[in-house]
Design goal:
By secondary structure, the chain is mainly alpha-helical. Helices cover 88% and strands 0% of the residues. It contains 5 helices and no strands. α2 crosses α3.
C-alpha cells in the first residue's frame, strides 16, 4: 500500500488514490454501523426469546448480570494489560538500544572476520573467556550442591 502511494505520488495520481481511499473508508464505516445494528437486533431477538420462556423481568435481570460480569472481566483485563508509561518507555528504550547494538555488531562482522583471518591469535580471547565462564559455572553449581557428590 505504501509503495502504491509512492508510485501514485511520482506519477501525479495521488488525488485519485486518496479519493479511492476515502470511498473505501466510507464503505467500511457504513458496514460497521450495519454490523452494530445487526448485533443489537440479535441481542433483542435473544432477549425476546428468553423473555417468552421465563418472563421479562427475569430476562432483564439475566442480561444485566451478564453485562456486569463482562464489564468486570474487561476491567480486570485492562488493569492487567495496562503498564505505566515509564515502564513502556524503558522497554522501548531497551529495545531501541538492542536493535542499534545488533546493527552495529552485524555491520562490524566483516571487519572482525578480516582481523581474525590476519591474526588467528585473536580467537584465543573469546575461547578463553567462554572456558573461564564455563568452569566458574561448574564450580558454582558443584559448591551449591547441584551435582551429586
Amino acid at each position: 500500500m505504501v509503495f502504491q502511494l509512492i508510485s501514485r505520488l511520482l506519477t501525479g495520481e495521488a488525488s485519485i488514490y486518496f479519493a479511492r481511499l476515502r470511498t473505501i473508508a466510507t464503505i467500511y464505516v457504513v458496514m460497521g454501523i450495519f454490523a452494530l445494528a445487526m448485533l443489537f437486533f440479535l441481542f433483542l431477538a435473544l432477549f425476546a426469546w428468553i423473555a417468552h420462556s421465563i418472563g421479562v423481568v427475569a430476562t432483564a435481570l439475566i442480561f444485566a448480570a451478564a453485562c456486569l460480569v463482562i464489564l468486570i472481566g474487561v476491567y480486570i483485563f485492562l488493569t492487567i494489560a495496562r503498564r505505566p508509561p515509564r515502564r513502556r518507555a524503558r522497554e522501548r528504550m531497551q529495545s531501541d538500544v538492542a536493535s542499534i547494538a545488533s546493527v552495529a555488531a552485524v555491520s562490524n562482522l566483516p571487519l572482525l572476520f578480516r582481523s581474525l583471518r590476519r591474526r588467528k591469535s585473536l580467537l584465543i580471547v573469546p575461547v578463553a573467556a567462554a572456558s573461564v565462564w564455563g568452569v566458574f559455572r561448574v564450580f558454582q553449581n558443584w559448591r551449591d550442591g547441584g551435582y551429586r557428590r
